[in-house]
Amino acid sequence: MSEPNDAHFPFQCNQCQYNTRNPHLPCAVHPHKIEDARCPDFELDTSLPAGEWWEPEGAAYYGGEILIDPVQRWTRAQQLALLDWHPLFTERCPDCERSMTQTTPARVHWDCQECGWKDDSV
Ligand SMILES: [Zn+2]
Fold first, then answer.
1. In angstroms, what is the span from residue 23 Cα to ligand 1's centroid?
2. Which residue of 7, 28, 73, 115 sits 20 to 30 Å from the alpha carbon of 97, by its own alpha carbon?
3. pTM for this one?
């Protein structure tokens, strides 16, 4: 397999039948480089076993296209909302407002001793 992080070629080249798997001449059609994020001559190499495809972390190939993995536990909005109420950031229980400070070593669970509020964000 060619070098996956070669900046001269798009990610899709790793699955292309024109990829020679030779680091000195990675592409039979475009020997030097491809300027665009997608190659106009891309042809899916169907001889590649599915598990052999290199995929960057957090992304996957679907039908010859690379997609960033949309599955995240928290959406961006939820992450931002956490800043407003989570005791890790506010140092207060979101229920009874009792002061809650970080411990040493840093705690993961922020359950409230006073009102019994349970931190289910972890
Ligand atoms: Zn509380």
1. 60
2. 73
3. 0.39
